[in-house]
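Reopening: Magnesium transporter CorA still failing for me.
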Amino acid sequence: MARTRLYRNGILEAENFPPADVSDYLDDPAATVWLDMCSPTEDDLATISEELSLHRLAVEDAMHEHQRAKLDRYDTHLFLTAYAVRLNAETGALVKHEVAAFITERALVTVRKNERFDIGEVLTRWDSAADLAKSGVGFLVHGLLDYVVDSHFDAVQELDDEIEALEDLIFAERLDDGDMHRRSLRLRKSLVTLRRVVLPMREVVNALMRRDFTIVDNTLTPYYQDVYDHVLRASEWTESLRDLVTTVRETQLNLQSNRLNLIMKKVTSWAAVIAVPTAITGFYGQNVPYPGFDQGWGFWVSTLAILVISGTLYTVFKRRDWL
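Support: Ran it again with your exact input. Result attached.
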């Protein structure tokens, strides 16, 4: 179901009117129209495409999923693609929600691929900054971008918390290596996905702020600069977290190697201790006469030699932390 809004001279005048009425307001220089379409058909987009003179390539991109986050310029409008993201706390996977937008001089048309993109949150941002509505389409685009970029920032914050929890697990006494590997790989995959949607947003926001686009006026400039700052922080944070995940992974492998070396050291030390009585008893098991052969004191001498030499080896290994 399509949703609509009409702002006239910065005041919300009408809402949820039929999409067919959009064209009635486009000739009014004081009017700004918003139209939202969720999972539209080709016929739906064809109708609005004729009214707004949308480019065929832009309409095709709006219909197809998995577009790159971008801002394309055409003769009569701009075409924007962006992604809101959400981190699944249970699986650690990053979920993307795509939105496309046609930006004209007096209208903003948003095309959502599904209901999971929370357009209600965008409306809340518009209503909370109603004093900026006089800036026209730039005001609507700012609310949309602000929601998208904030979702990036929230996701990178949650990923940071997940990585901190992963760091704590590294030094746990009983560590499940398989679970550790799975969690670190999931986080790394989520960061790669987040990077793909965050980095292009720097170019998108920066392009919208260009004077020749006439989207951002002097009133909105500080607000777009704030969004751009959030984009930069999210992208830099994402890059640092990628390096941190790599460091965590390397630390985990180093600790595994150290544990293996420690185990091998202890096993080797015990083998050296056990080799002493094995050697002595093996020697006394020879079928040739030896000192104390067939005598009671010979047994006690061999037993004492086993205890003394084994005890000495144990003490030396223990002092050197080999046991």
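The beta strands are 3-8, 11-15, 31-38, 70-73, 78-87, 94-103, 107-112. If you still see a failure, please send the error message rather than a screenshot.
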